[in-house]
Amino acid sequence: MKKTTLFLAAAISAFGVFAQSDKLPGNLVIEGIPEIPAQLKERMNQYQNTRSSSLSSFNPGNSSMMISTRFGETSQLHLVDHPGGARKQITFFKEPISGGSFCPLPERNGFIFSRDQGGNEFAQLYWFDLKSGSQELISDGGRTQNRLAAWSEKGDQFITISTRRTGKDYDLYLSHVDNPKEAKLILQEGGSWSVLDWSPDAKQLLVINRISANKSFIHILDIASGKLTQINPSKEDIAYSNGTWTADGKGIFIVNDEKTEFQTLKYYDIANKKFTSITASIPWDVSGVANNKDRSKFILNVNENGYSKLYDFNPINNIITPLEGLPIGIISGVRFNQQTGDLG
Length: 344
Prior knowledge:
Layout: H1 2-21, H2 38-48, E1 53-58, E2 65-70, E3 75-80, E4 87-89, E5 100-102, E6 110-115, E7 124-129, E8 134-137, E9 146-151, E10 157-162, E11 171-176, E12 179-187, E13 193-198, E14 204-212, E15 215-222, E16 228-230, E17 240-245, E18 251-256, E19 264-269, E20 274-277, E21 285-291, E22 298-304, E23 307-314, E24 319-322
Antiparallel strand pairs: 1-2, 2-3, 3-4, 5-6, 6-7, 7-8, 9-10, 10-11, 11-12, 13-14, 14-15, 15-16, 17-18, 18-19, 19-20, 21-22, 22-23, 23-24
């Protein structure tokens, strides 16, 4: 009788231990797993609650760069004065700011950025004055989507993309920094259009009409006349991803996958309408192209088996040289500081 009582007491005690450790979060049953100490949870938070930062633009008035990173609840814009320097936050909105672009004219001392209201996805464009810290709405302010497409070489004009005309088509508008709220409609072809580059003489735009991930069309748009000239008309589906004018304006460096499984950099001669392949020897996708101010130096970002590798490209002799010493990883948003020639 005594043994039976002791056995029942031990069984009840053991059942109590396991019953206390059982957890039922949702439909998940956890048995025999000890509680995770609160101190360990707090220690792990520094590894789980990470944040990234991305390069948005270089300040033409000095060597500082503008980055986008989250410090708090939302991503905002910050300035970094030198490599390894501390960030200085310059926007403080409830809505996240993914990026901004400085006006190339140093005396303007400001930049254009976009944000929506309460996550409604109707992004509007704003001019931010660094000296006063004030912002001004420069797009229409309606239920439309807007984004900055490109600055002119001189920096006195810029192209924006907006759905203000129909609410669904992405048209191109031209504005001047002296009156940024005035936007002249320069392309209304319907569908999704964007700008790849502005010609060195500021008279033409290299524009792209994206249909899908595997199909797009690329054109030269004459700004004054509105004439649209398609480059490389073809019945085959071709995906274009990048395009940059040469310094003399006689050709364009274009990235596409025509007759190859990879996004390949090619030179397009505007006069004879012919392509010359440049990166055919690299069996990987060219995912990005950046150039310095006078277009004498290019950097190619190549996706090699899931990792990024940068190449220096000389447009005079078409020589490509890999940049050594970079850590293995994913690289994006590569661009030149157009004043100093530094690469970010």
